[in-house]
Structure formats: C-alpha cells, structure tokens
Amino acid sequence: MGNQTTILQTKNLSVGYTSSREQQLIFNDLNLAAKTGELHCLLGVNGIGKSTLLRTLAGLQPTLSGEIIIDGQAIQQYNSKQLATKIAVVLTNQGINASLTVKELVEMGRYPYTGWSGRLNETDKEAVAKALALCEIEAIAHKNIHKISDGQLQKTLIARAIAQDCPLMILDEPTVHLDPNNRYLIIELLSKVAHQSNKCILLSTHQVEMAIDLSDKIWLAKSENTLLADIPSKLLENNDIKSVFPYTRP
Ligand SMILES: Nc1ncnc2c1ncn2[C@@H]1O[C@H](COP(=O)(O)OP(=O)(O)OP(=O)(O)O)[C@@H](O)[C@H]1O
C-alpha cells in the first residue's frame, strides 16, 4: 500500500502502575511501531497487561518511563481535542450514562471537528451515515442506547470510532459481547477499514485464530514484561503463539 506513515511509535516505553508504596511494572522497554494501512492484534492471557498497554498508548494513563510518539510528535504535546483527531479509542466497560440514541452517540465521534455549537456539516453527516452502514446498525439508529443489547452497544461504539475518522484506532476487546458471526464480521470490518481507508488499527482480542488470519502484525504478550511484535507466520513458525496458547488450534 502507498503512502503508509508510522503513526504510532514507542521508545523505551515502560507501562504499569505506581502507588505511594510500590511500582508495578507491566511491560518494560517497549520499542514498537505501527503504520497506517495495517491491522495489529494484541494477544495475551488474562491479566498480562493488554488493557494497561492500550490505555497508556491512547494517552489515558501515564507512562512509567519512555516515549510515545503519535504521528511524529510526542503524545503529551497534543491537547485533548487535537489528540482526538489522531486517536479514536474504544474501551471495555465504557460506562455511558447519557440518554442518547445510537445515531447521537455515533455523531459524538465528530466532536473533534465541529465548532463550539457541535453542529454537524455535510462531511460530518456523511461520516456518521457511513459508519452506521459499515457496522450494520442503521435499523437501530433511532433507538435509545439504554434499550439496545450489549452487542449492539459494542457495534455503536465501534461506529463512533469509525466516524471519528482518525489515522489510529485503539480498541480494547472490540468483540466482547458479540456472537461468533458478529465477532468475525467486526474484525473483518476493522481489517477492511485499516487496508481500504489507510488507518492503523490496534486491537486486543482473545480470538487467536481470527487474529492470525486477519492481522498484519501480532503483538504477543508472551510472559511478564515480554512483548513480541511480528507477522503472524513468524510467530507461528517460532512456536511463540503455541507457547502462550497451548490449547488453540494453530
Ligand atoms: N487501576 C489499576 N491499578 C493497579 N493495578 C491494575 C489496575 N488495573 C489493572 N491492574 C493490574 O494490572 C495487571 C494487568 O491488567 P490488565 O487489565 O491490563 O490485563 P489484561 O491483559 O487486559 O487482562 P484481561 O485479558 O483479563 O482483560 C493485572 O495484574 C491487574 O491486576
């Protein structure tokens, strides 16, 4: 693919938690890079630190040390509205209390581009319509989000991120709550968005086979503090995936 750019880079990045008493190091000295036009899947067992890493890369949690560079600029140099034009984020347990319809929630993805009035122009409306169609939620667009299923809410949050139209999308377990058909369709859709719209999509998942089939690169949290990033065939060849997930098929 032409005009791919390195949208995400880390330099000697360490992530984890600090309290007054101790420091909990989750990943140490990470030097990662991801380009637009690629789907990267983060795999690892429960509790290894996937959400912690994704939250840190999205600027939602402080680093322990090292740098995160987004589109050539240190992440802390962006204000929140500027960063929202670079990174769209979908997290798990994203409590949404507002009384909104599905369409209104997807429209919120356009917030970084609208003026103070929040009024949508034609480009914004087109982006919203496209995202609703891609996620196949047009039929429930008028419904209040309190009256839709968990899976439908998950698709709505993904549609909001797509409408946000950022070069980098970070999604923590986007297939949670989805049935097997929708799990496949959503990852396939995200792969298509990455390749056809030249976005970098980084997501965590427990769908190992799907990640092997569809991702350009896998970030494999191998053991505490160790993260391997490579093309799926290399990680298969070296038995790395099997060593983390001995009970999966590949
Ligand atoms: N707010 C927090 N403060 C301190 N430690 C935390 C916090 N959130 C998570 N942790 C710890 O960090 C480690 C990694 O948790 P994290 O949620 O990032 O793992 P995960 O790989 O996303 O897990 P899962 O696959 O189960 O969702 C765990 O030991 C967890 O207990």
UniProtKB/TrEMBL annotation:
Record-linked Gene3D superfamilies: P-loop containing nucleotide triphosphate hydrolases
Q: Which GO terms describe its molecular function?
A: ATP binding; ATP hydrolysis activity
Q: Which InterPro entries match?
A: AAA+_ATPase, ABC_transporter-like_ATP-bd, Metal_Ion_Import_ABC, P-loop_NTPase
Stated name of the protein: ABC transporter ATP-binding protein
Q: Which SUPFAM superfamilies match?
A: P-loop containing nucleoside triphosphate hydrolases
Q: Which SMART domains match?
A: AAA
Pfam family example for this protein?
Answer: ABC_tran
Domain ABC transporter, residue spans: 8-248
Q: Which organism is it from?
A: Marivirga atlantica
Say which family it is in.
Belongs to the ABC transporter superfamily.
- Keyword terms of this UniProt record: ATP-binding, Nucleotide-binding, Transport
The organism's superkingdom is given as Bacteria
